[in-house]
Amino acid sequence: MSQGARDGGVTTGCTVCHKEPGAYSGEVEHLFRFKLNTAFWFSSIASHAKKDTLTKAKDEFTKEREKLRVNAERQKTRLIHKSHEEIRRETNRVYADTLGSTR
């Protein structure tokens, strides 16, 4: 027989554990605080994971940009050396032609 049936049909509390209506407020408050703290904890974990991912991506982009800059500088240096060598050869050829034509 249920609690309500013993009281003449009026249910005043939980029919399962037979607690009074006000007896749950502490448990509900505790459960609410637990869920709220858990939500903040997961939010914090997600926030840190996001920041870590962004930092890692920025570091990778910075390394890639530096690598591109270094390669561009190397190509520029090679081109300058190649141009100087070409100018030197052309100057030597012209000089040799002028010496050969004066003899």
Give a quick precis of the structure:
Helices cover 80% and strands 0% of the residues. With 103 residues, the chain is mainly α.
Judging from the principal axes of the Cα atoms, what is the shape? rod-shaped
Q: Approximately how much helix is present in the residues? A: over 70%
Ends distance: 134 Å
Strand content: under 5%
Low-confidence stretches: 1-5
Count of alpha and pi helical runs: 2
Which structural class fits the helix and strand makeup?
mainly alpha
Please indicate the count of domains.
1
Biggest pleated sheet:
none
Oligomer state equals single chain
**Got a strand count?**
0
Based on CA atoms alone, the radius of gyration comes out at: 42 Å
List the keywords:
2 helices; 103 residues; mainly alpha; 80% helix; disordered N terminus; rod-shaped
Explain this structure.
- It contains 2 helices and no strands.
- It is 80% helix and 0% strand.
- The relative contact order is 0.04.
- It has helices at residues 3-6, 25-102.
- With 103 residues, it is mostly helical.
- The chain has one domain.
Task: List the topology elements.
Layout (H helix, E strand, L loop, with lengths): L2 H4 L18 H78 L1
